[in-house]
Design a protein that fits this description.
By secondary structure, this protein is α/β, with parallel strands linked by helices. It has a single domain (5-118, 206-380), classed as Thiolase/Chalcone synthase (Peroxisomal Thiolase, Chain A, domain 1, 3-Layer(aba) Sandwich), CATH 3.40.47. It has 13 helices and twelve strands. It has helices at 29-44, 65-70, 89-102, 123-127, 139-154, 158-172, 186-190, 219-224, 251-267, 284-294, 302-307, 324-327, 335-348; strands at 12-22, 53-57, 80-83, 108-115, 194-196, 199-200, 209-217, 233-242, 276-278, 318-319, 361-368, 372-380. A ten-stranded mixed β-sheet has the order 3-2-4-7-1-8-12-11-9-10, with helices on both faces. A two-stranded antiparallel ribbon has the order 5-6. The model has no long low-confidence stretch (mean pLDDT 94). Residues 26-180 form the Thiolase N-terminal domain. Residues 242-369 form the Thiolase C-terminal domain.
Amino acid sequence: MTATLARLRPVHVVGVGLHPYQRPGDTPYTRLGVHAVRAALSDAGLAWNQVQAAYTGTATTSMGLSRLMFRHLGATGIPLAQVENASASGSTAFRQACIEVAAGLADVAIAVGVDKPLKFSSPQKAAGLHDLADGRVVPATHFALLASRYAHDHGVTPEQIAAVAVKNSRNGALNPNAQRRKPRTLDEVLAPPRISGMLTRLQCCPIGEGAAAAIVASDDAIARFGLDRHRAVTVLSSASRSETVYDGENFDAALTRETTAEAITEAGITVDEVDVVELHDAFTVEELLYVEAMGLCAPGRAAYALESGEFDIGGRVAVSASGGLLSMGHPIGPTGVGQIAEITTQLRGEAGDRQHPHARTGLAHLVGVGAVCLVHVLRRA
């Protein structure tokens, strides 16, 4: 039988830290990353020389950046690896750190996400591939078309789709690490400029820079280093899939459904037990598509569930309490690790004004162009 994370030894998130997401600037990536790592070490109560392996999720900065970043913390000789998986780079780095600890190869591992938007490239050109659009259908246009299709199929208005950004801006305003920290009205969200189709600027996530770090540890490490077990959050499952062939269905939604089902089954829970969700809402319509694909509501009902407050902080399930990619931001490499930091903070009950009451189980979801999908399920001890 194929092993899963749940069949190996338990893995716990014991420390998280972030450098606030921000507009691109002159801050060196080393400062971004080291800030997040030091915050995670302090949160866990660990020293850098107690970390035994490091994975860095990054997609738009540079090759070999881990060495220059970690040398500021000390040359301890631990194995370092950089992970690139498009938007899911940080999520994949976190999965690798979890596998390292679950397999007994290390007792303490760290996943770091760091990026500065220095370069973006597509594999199609290098592969010599061409299509009828030849690169002109940029992501915003792709999701604008999906938004139009969703509105047509389910009788949903542009205002109902834009309401995703209203909710997430309200949450992001409570998050000191968010790039967009201003609550927005529906009129503000709908205001020009339109980026593509019905999608306005505030319905598209900002691409900035930042860093996030999450430290995972075994039970042995928690006992040996005297860590606070009450603040440890258990990683129940880690699922990773790539797309197959789908019959006319949006591939990101189909892939989300498959990967979420795998993660939920591996965790030994039902989706109704999930209290907080951080998902890939780079564009407003994505939240509606993905909560339906996850089974959080019936197909075609997400906009109405959102309207009734089911996805608010304090609602049935808090979706993107951090502000999501729309307001927290999407600096690519850090995004997936930042989701883990938010869920860990929520499950500890330490989220302050954006705390979802009685949060016990959380789910983190990201898709990466290509397409890949990663889903993690975490639970408070």
